[in-house]
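Repro:
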Amino acid sequence: MVTDESQWYVQKGSRVQGPFTADEVGRFLLLGRVRNTDRVSRDGELWEPVTQVPELIPEELLDLQSDDGWNQFLHVRQASDERTSTTKVAVDRRARSDKDAEYVRDEWQNKSTPTDSSNGVLPWSLLGITLAALGVVLYLNATSGVAG
């Protein structure tokens, strides 16, 4: 079946998902399932940040600073969530969803980045790895000079 609607692949780290329609990607952005740090591609070969593809970004993500924009985002987000229901499980999910919504707002307002960590574990671990690698390089360099 041939369709005129564009198909998009989403790359989250090394994992590729899709194809999705532009509307699906927009819905996933609203729900926080696709983040502004993820990459997209039409063909699975050439990737670009989702933030660089205006047709994929829902209008509701563009005005999260104002109260009206935030309320509109929450309304559209809830309407887009297929898990919305009145069961206890759904109410618990909605509470988690509200926290996710706050994360989406922070992410789109550039208050957090993927490498930010509340306890700083990621940057310190990277420093440790870098120092260990430097030690190995220096050791190998020193021992290769002795053998030659």
